[in-house]
Amino acid sequence: MKKDSKPRLLLALTLALGVVISGCAGYGTGGQDMGDDALTEGARAQFDCANRNGNEFIESAELVFLVQCGVREGQRCGDIPDEMSEQPSSREQFRQGRRLLDIMDLNKDQKISKLEFRAFCNSQGG
Ligand SMILES: [Ca+2]
Ligand SMILES: [Ca+2]
């Protein structure tokens, strides 16, 4: 459920990268998530919550999850709602998601990286 398609090239790349990374960072959780250090615990939880396919980005298809995971314009990062019951309508979630992409997507590649998410969280004061 994690990795999708594009097997070989990606695998080769990952392996090559892994060699480089394990060379200079022989510690940590052994995950592929470099850059996690950049996020506070709560913000990271929200990022992971929305990042359904487990890659390094929140893509446009995942924007509604970002909203469902409690990310709001003008609110501090880190609060995942306990219940999903008090969610805006799906149309509203979609609208807010697009708005969040607008705000966060600094390099305009239509997806939100962890760094962009961190920048957003910092600007929200948390
Ligand atoms: Ca993703
Ligand atoms: Ca981006």
SSE blueprint:
Blueprint (H helix, E strand, L loop, with lengths): L6 H18 L16 H10 L6 E3 L3 H6 L21 H15 L6 E3 H10 L3
Antiparallel strand pairs: 1-2
The chain binds calcium ion (CA) (2 copies).
One calcium ion (CA) binds next to strand 1.
InterPro entries: EF-hand-dom_pair, EF_Hand_1_Ca_BS
Keywords: Signal
Protein name: EF hand
Summarize the structure in short.
The protein is mostly helical and 126 residues long. It is built from 5 helices and 2 strands. One calcium ion (CA) is lined by residues 51, 53, 55, 57-59, 62.
Defining key terms:
Recoverin, domain 1, 5 helices, globular, binds calcium ion
CATH architecture of the domain at 37-123: Orthogonal Bundle
> Which percent range describes the beta-strand content?
under 5%
Which fold name fills CATH's third level, the topology of the domain at 37-123?
Recoverin, domain 1
Based on secondary structure, the structural category is mainly alpha
Hetero ligands: calcium ion
* Number of helices, where a helix is a run of at least 4 consecutive DSSP H or I residues: 5
Order of helix and strand elements from N to C terminus: HHEHHEH
**For this structure, what is the CATH class of the domain at 37-123?**
Mainly Alpha
Taking all Cα atoms into account, the compactness measure Rg is 16 Å
* Main pleated sheet: 2 strands, antiparallel
Indicate the multimeric state.
Answer: single chain
- Helix coverage percent: 40-55%
Protein name: EF hand
Keywords: Signal
Signal peptide: 1-25
